[in-house]
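User: Sequence in, structure out. Go.
Assistant: Echoing your sequence, followed by the structure tokens.
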Amino acid sequence: MPQTRDNLALRAGRWSARHRRTAILGWLAFVAIALVLGGAIGTRMLEDDSGSGSSGRAERALDAHFPDTAQEAILVQSRDGSLTAADPAFREAVRDVERRLDALPEIASVESPLDGGHGDRVSEDGRSALIQAEMAGDAEEAEDHVQPVLDAVAAAQRAHPQLRIEQFGDASADRALSERFEEDFRQAELLSLPITLLILVVAFGALVAAGLPVLLALTSVGAALGLVAIPSQIWPVDEAVSSVILLIGMAVGVDYSLFYMRREREEREKGRDERSALLVAAATSGRAVLVSGMTVMIAMAGMYLSGSDIFTGMATGTLIVVGVAMLGSVTVLPAMLAWLGDRVNTGRVPLVHRLRRPGEDPRAWSWVLDRVLRRPWLSAIAATALLVLMAIPAFGLKLVLPGAEGLPRDMAVMQTYDRIQAAFPGGPTPAVVVVEADDVRSPQMTRAIADLREQVLAADDMGGPVGVRVSEDGRAAAIDVPLAGGGTDDVSNAALERLTDEVIPATVGAVPGAEVNVTGMTAGSRDFSDLMASRAPLVFAFVLGLAFLLLLVTFRSIVIAVKSIVLNLLGVAASYGVLVWIFQEGHLEGLLGFHANGGITAWLPLFLFVVLFGLSMDYHVFILSRIREGFDRGLGTERAISAGIKATASVVTSAAIVMVAVFSIFATLSMLEFKQMGVGLATAVLIDATIIRAVLLPAVMKLLGDWNWYLPRWLEWLPRFRHEPAVDEPARVEEAEEQERVPVAV
């Protein structure tokens, strides 16, 4: 039997092929244990008090001094403008709502807009009024107990049809949004699996071969969802971590399986027996999977340096799912291929042909590549110019937290939000001024709070209702200050700046010994954006530095390492530019179903960088490994480039189509931030698999020639890895494979 050069992936593949029963059953047991363990422990979710800057300090002060309760606002509004708060019918409707709420055990207190001191809860035109209600119990459980309140408000609406009586608040909005969120992701999951399977059926032409990558990806996601519960007990994760695990797990799980299986099939097409083909695939594609996986994990680990608890949770989830997928692809996948043998081609689909016939180069990519290699200067300049042009809008990138502006407007609760916002600008999500002092009830502080309220109500960019809460211990006060604008736009930011720089220093901030911080949507968005901007260079340096070292060691070329990083950065920059052009500048709003809010979700650029850099390195390492393999086999650089890219074109195309399709599904979801994530990821993968891999990479490598493999003498001590398996030498591995097929239920 031909010999393949030993490496970790080969040893793992050989062992799994020999002990396929153990490998397959062991994998299934591992996934089951992870799921059961995760369910028993439970995943600990991130609390809301983990913000940064002044808003983070304000949130922690609120958590320390005030009970964590949910607030609900009930809007009473004249439908046609004929009634005002001074009319008996309007006032009777308000009193009726208050009576219904007071009778509910789920409501702790009700503040009427008709009582003295709450005149700012009636709109300037008198046609709208806000009733403030505080839910009983803990805020985290309010969502489960808000239905009786919704029913009472609905009953009041039926009793007073001439008025609009609607509800918006912490519990009611959370309930509605949770239902929409779950509905969206059920739709994404239902669409992603059949689309992925269909693409793989076209790629392999057989149902069994198409099902293996999906099976590996799904089991990897399942195991990761269970395992993430363990570190979450120490480092809580954001609720979006499950979606990120699904997204990344499906992407890398399918990718790694494709790399492995297509190489095994290629070797079989060359005439090798089943075992030889499998070992060659393990030694080559299996090793590329390990290098790619390590690169992805390095990129994901950069999120730990972001300073954000949200990113810490995402980093943990993605590291786990990539590690699990990588482990499965070099253990259970070769075991399954060894067990199935040529039966992996069972279930051939009529009229569906492979992307290419055995031994035949892919026609489309061959046509492109031949012309790129014929005119490398022209190709490199044209591709670079196109990427730079696409990246230009990224220079105007503005970070915002979308908040309510990023939520779907076809929901009744968001339509209520918009009506409250129109009648009481900033009222639904006000800035909260948190004052801490020895005694906030002191005469001096009381006057300062009254002065602040007076200045706010007199300002053009701020207004009412201004709510004031004092903690039971008298050491903290929370003052709600509605800001003009949409919450994260320039108008709101200007109002926040005036509040923090002018109003607060002249009022509560002037009281000796007082500590004042501001939270809320606008303040939180500003502080989070500032944090991301300050930490981004550190994350970039970490990811790029470690990726450079890994590529340097893997390919023993300083040029390959530098070139790989530059090309990937070009792709990321181009995807940023497309993202800004669409979502920040407001193009394609009708097609994608969104309303631009003047910025990009604050956490997205950093997240996209680590994810895109990691995923694009998958393709890069896979392609470069085949090029280096040809070079080690004695081909010249140009022939190695041509052979390597043509040999990998079909698998890279298939993997890219899967990723683009899955990521595009996220662009159909309701939430703006997930639309942005889906479009950003899909665009970047498309750019990477076409402009960069098919044009820019071969053009640059052709221009560099043998300089591609340059390694300074002072780095000659780096270990040598042979990329091309020594397939023509006598066998030295022991033939201990079982003779019979082992029946395993999968």
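User: And one key feature?
Assistant: The chain is about 60% helix and 5% strand.
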